[in-house]
Amino acid sequence: MRNASKTILNEICDINPRIDKTKIADSLKVSFVPMAAVGAGDGKIDVSHKRPFSEVKKGFTPFQSGDILFAKITPCMENGKITVVPRLENKYGFGSTEFHVIRPKDGVESRYVYYFISRLQYRKDAASKMTGAVGQKRVPVDFLKQTEIPLVPLDEQKLIVSEIEKQFSRLDEAVAALKRIKVNLKRYKASVLKVAVEGKLTEEWRKK
After folding, report:
1. Bridge partners of 145?
2. Residue 94 near residue 31 (C-beta atoms within 8 A)
3. C-beta separation of 93 from 85 below 8 A
4. Pseudo-torsion of CA 91, 9, 58, 37, nearest 10°?
5. Beta pairing partners, 73
6. Fewer Cβ within 10 Å of end Cβ, the chain: N or C?
7. What is the pLDDT of residues 158-195, one digit of tens each?
8. Burial 79-108 (b: 16+ CB within 10 A, else e)
């Protein structure tokens, strides 16, 4: 990448930032995101579920629009449960304590960071640094903080993100086309078997 400089994630993002809970009314409905609400490997997230702030202000992980949620526990991390938080109705969201939250600073595009840390190789590296008991291993926060990432100007970050998403869109279209072909092949096979069973497939041959 042109004009890329090496930096570490902790310099361009706040990792597991805190929020001032005293400014939030207990009755405010906030988005609630359990681990199951984040897709595995597809970046999807469901923020439609709401709970009063009073129910989630203790024992859950806070986040805001534009933050990146990174599942830290096995096997969710290896499965790619990583996502960028979309616009939230009431600004705040709370979710599983098994998420690390990454908040890009000014001049850093959230999806640029997301695509970098959602790569398979990065997840393999993270898995090798997990700590804890078998079945309960987690990615330590220091691994994220010390992650080296190439940083380019914001405009170039956006161009890179746009190109990645364009290529992914083309791939999705190709996969959809292959699925349609597969369905049509199944229908064709079924029709061939039908006419064969009915004797129509060899009808002309038998007449001759």
Report:
1. none
2. yes
3. yes
4. 70
5. 138
6. C
7. 999 999 988 877 767 777 777 787 777 777 677 766 66
8. ebbbbbbeebeeebbbbbebbbbbbbeeeb
- Give me the numbers of helices (H) and strands (E) for the chain, helices first please: 7, 10
- 59-108: pLDDT as tens digits: 999 999 999 999 999 999 999 999 999 999 888 999 999 999 999 999 99
The single-letter code of the amino acid at 157 is Q
pLDDT at residue 44 greater than cutoff 60: yes
Percentage of the chain surpassing pLDDT 90? 71
Q: How many CA atoms lie within 13 A of 97 on its CB side?
A: 6
Give the helix ranges, DSSP H, for the chain.
9-12, 53-56, 110-117, 120-128, 141-145, 154-197, 203-207
- Give the integer Cα–Cα distance in Å for 161 and 166: 9
Q: pTM of the full predicted structure?
A: 0.81
- Encoding tokens for residue 156? 């170039």
